[in-house]
Amino acid sequence: MTKVNNEKKSELGITAEKDEFSDWFTQIMLKADLADYTDVSGCIVFRPTAYAIWEKIKEECDKRFKNLGVKNCYFPILIPEKLLSREKEHVKGFSPEVAWVTHAGDTKLNERLAVRPTSETIMYPSYSKWIKSWRDLPLKLNQWNNAIRWEFRHPVPFLRTREFLWNEGHTVYANEKESLKERDEIKKTYKEVCENFLALYGVYGRKTEREKFAGAVFSEKFHYILPNGKAIEGPCFHHDGENFAKAYNIKFLDEFGKAQYANQNTFAISTRMLGVMFAVHSDEKGLILPPKIAPNQIVIIPIFDEKTKKQVLAEAKKIQKELSEFNPILDEREYQRPGFKFNEYELKGIPIRIEIGPKDLEKKQVILFRRDNLKKDPIKIINLKKRIPKILEEMQKNLFNKSKKLFEGKIQSSDNLKDIKKIIESKKVGIVPLCKNEKCEEMIKFETKGAKALFIDEKKIKGEKCIICNNPADYFVYVGKSY
Amino acid sequence: MTKVNNEKKSELGITAEKDEFSDWFTQIMLKADLADYTDVSGCIVFRPTAYAIWEKIKEECDKRFKNLGVKNCYFPILIPEKLLSREKEHVKGFSPEVAWVTHAGDTKLNERLAVRPTSETIMYPSYSKWIKSWRDLPLKLNQWNNAIRWEFRHPVPFLRTREFLWNEGHTVYANEKESLKERDEIKKTYKEVCENFLALYGVYGRKTEREKFAGAVFSEKFHYILPNGKAIEGPCFHHDGENFAKAYNIKFLDEFGKAQYANQNTFAISTRMLGVMFAVHSDEKGLILPPKIAPNQIVIIPIFDEKTKKQVLAEAKKIQKELSEFNPILDEREYQRPGFKFNEYELKGIPIRIEIGPKDLEKKQVILFRRDNLKKDPIKIINLKKRIPKILEEMQKNLFNKSKKLFEGKIQSSDNLKDIKKIIESKKVGIVPLCKNEKCEEMIKFETKGAKALFIDEKKIKGEKCIICNNPADYFVYVGKSY
Question: Are both B137 and B254 inside the same structural domain?
Fold first, then answer.
């Protein structure tokens, strides 16, 4: 069994400490077969394990969307330039990152086509056509698709990729009151999926004016903090009010026959959540997956020699069958030693490993290894089926609690510029009082060498001063470096 | 009840006969809210009903793929030009239809990027990296994604769109024998989904050399015939042999340590099957959907006045609840008359309509209307739950049989050029003996003003002569105009 530790630092395993975040994270992505680089800079392959997790996220969100009356549809990925340009704030926000199609075969197109960075500008001309009366509202559509934003910042697998997969919900209501009700429904949906499945603790909050979605009235998002102290945005909800309705002429006749502009929201969750989850839970042995999102909850490693092979494999198969609801892998490969397999599945983050050898058989037990806390315990075979759901539940809770601790451990309040600079330097996220003047927000970013206002804290200001201009502060904001 | 017929030919309903196929089909697409045009020529909106059917097709195929050990993944949509060009036949086939990304924001890219017309050329460089030993095989990956082929022929919603949705399976085997076994599995998968769910009769057959997939050793597809006599290709299976393995260097060490090229297949089903299904089953009243693929199997229309409203609605709701497994819509709108609703749901293809009024209530019955044969019958409420599955099954079978009849009625054999020209003129598909000389295949197309060799018949040649050159024929081929 000593083989395990010897092989730990081999080329196959992770050779970076979690502190060296970038190297550690990249190694996990590649060595646990989650992603691979491609010849298109900034675009990755989503390999089967990562993609299966994305399918699970989709499934859980989708069923909740459907319960809210949201219907799926599909709009073209290509958007004529003139449509993209109609909402001025929006096009300003996105055009620097747009990938442009200019030719089809050898023919130059009359008008450039944007590869969608987001679909407002292709969807809303149809909305304008479809919505005529208050009876056509609400209209609640959603797409699960791919989008491209050609950012020039350094790409990181899952966390910042030029192509990503996501949902984009686009809903239309008759008035603001109704449209704002949706915020809580969407927030609840994403919270359930991210907390209960991805085991991720995040904080939901409103963006400052400077950081909101291009074209929105306000933007609210879940925020996460990675082990390297960098913040990252998760699922989001944007309230657009009448902004896009005015730009794309989405009007309806109300019950009294009066023409009104419609009120709109959008919301999204993307594949960057895979990266957040991989980064937050994993360790120096490799990937750790919350059991509720893992494609396989269990791997069974039979340990045998020529003499005991038949008996051990028979029992292993019996266990595999009995535990089929947990999608157990049974690794029968004889050309790899158990120690090698232990490392491999630890690297790949299978939540539970069941080891079974001839001595275990004699005792009618197996050895059960938990990937989250690396603890090994014997367990009677007869108790497996009853105990495993409880162990998986414990693991799920444990990972969520750890992620909450990680988040909370990275947060520090401060009421002056000197301290916030130190907080950022020590790879943490600060909470500071700030006024609404965009100049002050810019100044923080300048002074901290790149930390920005992440979102507005729920806690109300009680006479605090803005740490930049010393005038009365308007709110507390989370400030940190971010992806 | 006469209102029904009066409204039939109104603007809301279908105003074209099925004979005027193009107009009729387009009206159904638009008026049954299946698709809409967009400002991007050749690209449509897949509206919720059409998209929900696509989701069902995906689900049924996907679960069969997974049972075959195929895993889902995701590769970038953008493909560097140099990768696209590596397999010569392949690039020749696709480059005239490629949409090219040349700029990101204001920056001109160093190398043009193709929007995927299909993913061989972006996937196989990764395959080359991942596959090292016979132990890495088979590798069975699949993507559900969007693809773009910028055809310059007249686009038709679903049937020929520049962007389409599809699966693309890409599998790798150690040798030809194993790879060819997959053909039957994939054929079975697509056949089950298209016959049992879409209720479509199609014929599977091999393409001629001239018509096979660019880069394949051979291509086989399901073929359908639309009411206008035009053939259309359905799901396909391509056997690539070592062609791509050689171009993309996909090699492995076999059990004896010898380097070997891998053997590959690809397979696909696309959203054009939605168009095939809509076109084959529908009629002059609008869409007809096979019950097993319809998002809602039943619509309940309560008929009442002020006095009977409460009682009728209560019963309608009770029925809705009892039949919940069939996703019944209950249309309670009071501002639309029953006749209007009848037309609307006939147009939208809901398989069963249940009408319930005060007189029915007295008799403890409802009126049940079948969309496939337009028959109306009273049925006791107490029998509904038991009878409906049987009726739906009958409808499903009926639609499949009709589609088989449609196909067979469009086929005519011929052993000479004069007859085949007449067959094509009469909007049918011919079967003719032909030799393998590509010139003869070209000549048929020329002589018939555009009918091409669709696929090779299973029936063997017994001394027949090629209808063009009069030399011994090599096979019988189906010849027809096509999408």
Answer: yes
In a domain, A368, yes or no: yes
Q: Which domain holds residue B436?
A: 411-480
CA distance linking residue A351 with residue A394, whole number of Å? 11
For residue B13, give the nearest of B259, B285, B389 by alpha carbon: B285
**Within-domain flag for B10:** no
CA nearest to A12, candidates A354, A301, A342: A342
CB A349 within 8 A of CB A286: yes
Query: Among B39, B97, B122, whose Cβ lies nearest the Cβ of A83?
Result: B39
Q: What is the rounded distance in angstroms from the CA atom of residue B351 to the CA atom of residue B374?
A: 10
- The answer for residues whose C-beta is within 8 angstroms of residue B462's C-beta and 6 or more apart is none
Pairing of strands A163-173, A139-148: antiparallel
**A312 and A260 in one domain?**
no
Structure-block tokens of residue B87: 């397999």
Q: Which of A37, A56, A101 to mutate to test the interface with B (most CBs of B within 10 A)?
A: A101
Shared-domain flag, residues A263 and A361: no
Cα distances (Å, whole numbers) of residue A477 to A202, A415, A451, A471, B294: 15, 11, 12, 15, 50
Cα distance from B47 to chain A (closest Cα, Å)?
A: 5
Q: Tell me, yes or no, if B133 comes closer than 8 A to chain A by beta carbon.
A: no
Q: pLDDT tens string for chain A (483 positions)?
A: 333 334 444 578 888 887 789 999 999 999 999 999 999 999 999 999 999 999 999 999 999 999 999 999 999 999 999 999 888 888 888 889 999 999 999 999 999 999 999 999 999 999 999 999 999 999 999 999 999 999 988 899 999 999 999 999 999 999 999 999 999 999 999 999 999 999 999 999 999 999 999 899 999 999 999 999 999 999 999 999 999 999 999 999 999 999 999 999 999 999 999 999 999 999 999 999 999 999 999 999 999 999 999 999 999 999 999 999 999 999 999 999 999 999 999 999 999 999 999 999 999 999 999 999 999 999 999 999 999 999 999 999 999 999 999 999 999 999 999 999 999 999 999 999 999 999 999 999 999 999 999 999 999 999 999 999 999 999 999 999 999
Task: Count CA within 13 A, CB hemisphere, residue B398.
Answer: 17
Instruction: Provide the chain B residues 147-206 that lie in CB contact (below 8 A) with chain A.
Output: 148, 150, 163, 165
Q: Which residue has the tokens 């939901």?
A: A204
Contact check, Cβ <8 Å, B40/A79? yes
Q: Do B39 and A80 touch (CB under 8 A)?
A: yes
Region for residue B261 given its phi and psi (left: phi exceeds 0; alpha: psi -120 to 50; beta: otherwise) = beta
CATH number at residue A456: 3.30.110.30
What are the E-state strand segments in A394-444? 411-413, 429-434
Q: Name chain A contacts of B55, Cβ cutoff 8 Å.
A: 72
To the nearest whole angstrom, how far is the Cα of A66 from the nearest Cα of chain B? 11
CATH code of A376's domain: 3.40.50.800
Interface of B with A in 31-60 (CB under 8 A): 36, 38-40, 43-48, 51-52, 54-55
Same domain, B132 and B268: yes
Please count the residue pairs, one from chain A and one from chain B, whose beta carbons lie less than 8 angstroms apart.
Answer: 157
**Residue B297 DSSP label:** S
- The answer on A334 and A423 residing in a single domain is no
Query: B44 vs chain A: nearest CA distance in angstroms?
Result: 7
Measure in Å the smallest separation between the Cα of B106 and chain A Cα atoms.
7
Q: Which CATH number covers residue A155?
A: 3.30.930.10
Q: Which residues of B touch A34 (CB under 8 A)?
A: none
State the burial class of residue B63 (Cβ atoms within 10 Å of its Cβ: 0-12, 13-18, 19+): exposed
> Hey, what are A334's tokens?
């004889």
In a domain, B58, yes or no: yes
